């Protein structure tokens, strides 16, 4: 067989490497790639690599955490099952994010009325969307409905240099008019700070918070127990969990489950 000229071989090798990189973190269906900055997309891919990589994220099965101490969540990423316990109002939600079904118990009473039950399941979905975003947002930069913009470089509150990305949304979530700015550390390509804007066109953010104290859970990095004492705490990544956690009302003891 005739050998390829060296320059052609190197070109094909480079092309294959580029394809492999592009395929390593494919965007979700509905991600607005056309309106997103190529530099912003590249930075989102770098974040995914720094967080452990797309395969590690896809393979992660169960995540458990507490949100501001108000709610405790257990989420099976593969089945879509979520258990949300709200001690403040003695409510337990057993909900599936894939098919939008579930059960709710309030003060030891299982809710049977269809209208009341549906309203509570809507609340469960809002809780999951909000509480999970506070934990796994860096893995969702190329989600459906997202548009990314690279706003240039700037300093974080700790004076470290960072790339600043803007996330805006269309027809997704429960508050699609929100937008976020995230600061990506130029040294390790991890998100270290974020700002929340309740409305797309407002000038000043509602808050700027740290996204720090990364720890390895299983094969991925997550930010919890942050320096402002807000957001997710008591994070665990589990290899497996008894499926009755998502069907039985008895509060589970996940400490005894298989974990990493």
The tally of structural domains comes to 1
| Alpha-beta classification | alpha+beta
Shape-level CATH architecture: Clam
Q: Report the order of strands and helices.
A: HHHEEEEEEHEEEEEEEE
> How much of the polypeptide forms β-strand, as a percent range?
25-35%
Largest sheet: 7 strands, antiparallel
CATH topology: outer membrane lipoprotein receptor (LolB), chain A
Helix content: 10-25%
Number of helices: 4
Radius of gyration: 21 Å
Silhouette: globular
Low-confidence stretches: 1-23, 255-260
Number of strands: 14
Largest beta sheet: strand ordering: 6-5-4-3-2-1-14
Beginning-to-end CA distance, first to last residue: 50 Å
Describe it.
It is globular, with a radius of gyration of 21 Å. Strand 12 and strand 13 (about 220-225) form a beta hairpin. The protein contains four helices and 14 strands. It has one domain: outer membrane lipoprotein receptor (LolB), chain A (Clam). Helices cover about 25% and strands about 30% of the residues. The chain has helices at about 5-25, 40-50, 55-60, 115-135; strands at about 60-65, 70-75, 80-85, 90-95, 100-105, 110, 145-155, 160-170, 180-185, 190-195, 205-210, 215, 220-225, 230-240. The longest helix has 23 residues, at about 115-135. The chain has a seven-stranded antiparallel beta sheet, with helices on one face. Strands 7-8-9-10-11 form a five-stranded antiparallel beta sheet, covered by helices on one side. A two-stranded antiparallel sheet has the order 12-13. The chain is an alpha+beta fold.
Topology:
Elements: H1 6-23, H2 38-50, H3 54-59, E1 62-67, E2 71-76, E3 81-86, E4 91-96, E5 101-106, E6 109-110, H4 114-136, E7 146-155, E8 161-169, E9 179-185, E10 191-197, E11 207-210, E12 214-217, E13 220-223, E14 232-238
Antiparallel strand pairs: 1-2, 1-14, 2-3, 3-4, 4-5, 5-6, 7-8, 8-9, 9-10, 10-11, 12-13
């Amino acid at each position: 067989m005739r050998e390829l000229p060296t320059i052609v071989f190197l070109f094909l090798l480079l092309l294959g490497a580029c394809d492999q990189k592009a395929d390593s973190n494919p965007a979700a269906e509905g991600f607005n790639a056309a309106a997103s900055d190529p530099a912003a997309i590249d930075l989102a891919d770098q974040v995914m690599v720094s967080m452990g990589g797309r395969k590690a994220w896809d393979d992660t099965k169960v995540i458990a955490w507490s949100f501001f101490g108000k709610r405790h969540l257990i989420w099976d990423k593969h089945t879509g099952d979520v258990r949300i316990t709200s001690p403040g109002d003695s409510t337990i939600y057993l909900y599936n994010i894939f098919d939008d079904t579930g059960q709710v118990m309030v003060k030891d009473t299982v809710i049977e009325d269809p209208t009341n039950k549906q309203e509570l399941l809507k609340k469960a979905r809002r809780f999951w969307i909000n509480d999970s975003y506070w934990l796994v947002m860096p893995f969702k930069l190329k989600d459906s409905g997202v548009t990314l913009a690279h706003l240039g470089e700037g300093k974080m509150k700790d004076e470290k240099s960072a790339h600043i990305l803007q996330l805006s949304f269309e027809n997704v979530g429960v508050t699609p008019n929100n937008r976020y700015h995230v600061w990506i550390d130029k040294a390790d390509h991890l998100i270290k700070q974020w700002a929340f804007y309740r409305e797309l066109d407002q000038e000043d953010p509602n808050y700027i918070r740290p996204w720090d104290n990364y720890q390895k859970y299983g094969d991925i990095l997550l930010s919890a127990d942050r320096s402002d004492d807000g957001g997710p705490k008591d994070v665990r990544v589990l290899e497996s969990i008894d499926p009755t956690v998502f069907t039985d009302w008895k509060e589970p003891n996940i400490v005894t489950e298989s974990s990493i």
